[in-house]
Amino acid sequence: MWGWRKDFEDAGRARGKFDYYERRLWLVINRYVRKDLAESPHKTKGLTLLFGHATGVNKEAWEPTIMSLLKSRAGQDVEEIWVWDSVDSGDSALLNAGRLNQLSDWYDTARDIAHFLFHYMPSGVVSDGLPVHLPRIPVAEFNSRINRGFSERKIVAISHSFSGAAVGRVCSSYPQLFTAMVFIDPAMIKHDLPVLKPSLNHMAQGAFAREGIWKSRDEALASLQKSLFYGVWHPDARKLYVECAMYPTEWGTIKLKMHPVWEALSYTNGKEPSGDMYERLPSLDGKIYIKWIMPDPKTGGGLGGNEASKLLVKRRPGRTSNVNILGAGHMIPQEKPKEVGE
Question: Can you give the pTM of this predicted structure?
C-alpha cells in the first residue's frame, strides 16, 4: 500500500495537479447537552467539548470517559459535548459505504473538523434538541468565526491517536477556534524516527488480520474478551464497542461498521500527517492550554516510545502539562476511561 500511494502522488505531481474527490460524504456526530442550562446558568461561558477517536474506534467508545468526567468537579463547567465518527468509522462509514476514497489523508479529517466548526456548529448552547441534519450557519457568523472564533463558546478539543494529528492541524491553522487542547498519545511522530513506518505497518497488518464478522454480538464479545488487544479494555468500553461499532447484516451476522481494510488504509495514509504535525507543534498558539495524557512508561510510553514521548510533550513550550496514566497502553481512553475522565 505504501507503493500504491507513492505511485498515485507521483502521478499527480507529474501532471501538476491532483484529482479532486467530489463525492458527498457524511459525518455522524453525537451531541450531549445539559438539560438545566436555563435553571442554573454559568456566570461565564461554559465549556464545549469536541472529542476525536482513534483509528478503528467509534464515537461511542468515549462514553465511559465522558461519564467519569461529568461526575468530576471539572465536569460541572461542561455545557455541551460533540463526538464525531470520521467518514470511514462507525455510523459515518455506514452512510458513506461505496463512496469512500482509498487514498484519503488524515488531514482530510482536519478539513472535516474545520468545516463543521466554521459552518455547522450552532452559535450558542441550548438545552433543546437540534435537527438531525444541522443547517449551515449564516455567512455573517462564519465571517465572525474566521476573524474572532466563537463568541458564545469555549471549545476544548480532546483527541486520541490519529485524531490528535487532525485536530492539531486545525488548531495550527485556526487557533482562534480553541481555548484548550487535550492530546491523548497523539499520532505525532518525527518523520525520521525509525519506529514510525514499522509501527504504522504493524498496525495496518493487525487491522488486515482482524476478525470483522461474527454470528452474534455475544460471540463477538466473547472473542474480544480473549483478544490481547481488546482484552485489556475496560469492560464498559468493550461492551459499547460491540453494541455501537458493529451492525447486523441482512444475512443475520454481526459485522464491524469500519471495514478492516479501511482501518489498514488509514494507518498507511498517516505517515506524512504524523510527521508534519510533529514539526508544527512548537508554533501552536501559546494562548492555547495543552494537556498531554500519555501511557505508562512501563508499557512503552507512547506511539514513538518512551524517549520520543518525553520530547513530544515538551515541543510546545508555555501553557502545558502532562501526565502518564498508570498501567495504560496506547488505547488509554478504552483501557482507563475513569482515570482519563478524572
Answer: 0.92
User: 45-73 as b/e, with b when 16 or more CB fall inside 10 Å?
Assistant: bbbbbbbbbbbbbbbbbbbbbbebbbeee
Fill in the DSSP letter of residue 76: G
Q: Do the beta carbons of residue 124 and residue 153 sit within 8 Å?
A: yes
Residue 136 lies in a domain: yes
| Alpha-carbon span 204 to 262, nearest angstrom | 9
Does an H or E element contain 60, and which? none
Closest Cα partner for 26 from 132, 159, 138, 128? 132
Nearest to 169 by CA among 148, 188, 144, 149: 188
Long-range residue pairs from 13-21, CB within 8 A, at least 24 positions apart, any chain: 21/101, 21/104
What are the tens digits of pLDDT across the range 208-226?
778 889 999 999 999 999 9
Q: Grid coordinates in use for 8?
A: 498515485
Backbone angles phi, psi at 128, to 5 degrees: -65, 160
CB-CB contact of 233 with 335 (8 Å): yes
In this structure, what CATH number is given to the domain that contains residue 319?
A: 3.40.50.1820
* 28: containing domain: 22-192+272-341
Asked whether 31 and 80 are in contact (CB, 8 A), the reply is yes
The verdict on residue 51 lying in a domain is yes
Taking only the tens place, the pLDDT of each residue in 36-70 is 887 766 667 899 999 999 999 999 999 999 999 99
Number of domains in the chain: 1
In a domain, residue 250? The reply is no
Give the N- to C-terminal CA distance of the chain in Å, as an integer: 40
